[in-house]
Design goal:
There is one protein chain. The chain is of the alpha/beta class. It is about 30% helix and about 25% strand. Strands 1, 2, 3, 4, 5, 6 and 7 form a seven-stranded mixed β-sheet that branches. The longest helix is centred in the middle third of the chain and has 20 residues. The chain starts with 8 loop residues before the first strand and ends in a 10-residue tail after the last strand.
């Protein structure tokens, strides 16, 4: 039986440093805490929401009754700096780093999703960089933001072995 394709609702959250970050929401009225999905380095929302219904983790979780938020970090997909001059500069060389994701992007998304859902605890799923950001989010925002967390192919630390 073919599965019906659904489209997420698109919204944007603005960071204090002027980035317009994209979020893709598969809404579901539920008592469960929402799921926040974070893509890996060099990818975008399609990392967690492949266009084919049967291959989309976001759509799978939505079909199972979860309220799903698939986010795009700065520089990925439709997440862009507000100013045209900053966009042009970023095309040559990224002007952000891991700390910008930790201290700006993730808190911005948390506030945005809290405002939309009224929830302050989330299930987190992160691939690669996205998983590392979950570790950092729990450290910086506190344990209460994570009802659960799943990381896929994410580094546990950044220490190199000799």
């Amino acid at each position: 039986m073919a599965q019906k394709d659904i489209k997420p609702l698109e919204s944007f959250a603005k960071t204090e440093d002027g980035w317009r970050l994209a979020a893709y929401h598969y809404p579901r009225r539920t008592e469960r805490d929402p799921v926040i999905m974070i893509h890996g380095l060099g990818t975008n929302r399609y990392d967690m929401d492949f266009p084919f219904v049967r291959l989309s983790l976001a759509k799978y979780l939505h079909r199972r009754g979860y309220d799903v938020w698939n986010i795009e970090l700065r520089g990925a997909g439709k997440s862009q700096p507000a100013s045209i001059w900053r966009r042009m500069g970023g095309a040559v060389r990224p002007s952000w780093n891991f700390d910008d994701h930790v201290f700006s992007d993730i808190p911005t998304f948390v506030k945005h999703i809290e405002a939309q859902t009224g929830r302050s605890s989330f299930h987190w799923i992160g691939h690669s960089l996205g998983g590392s950001l979950i570790y950092a989010a729990v450290q910086t925002l506190g344990n209460q933001i994570a009802r659960s967390a799943v990381t896929i192919a994410s580094a546990m630390n950044s220490k190199a072995k000799p």
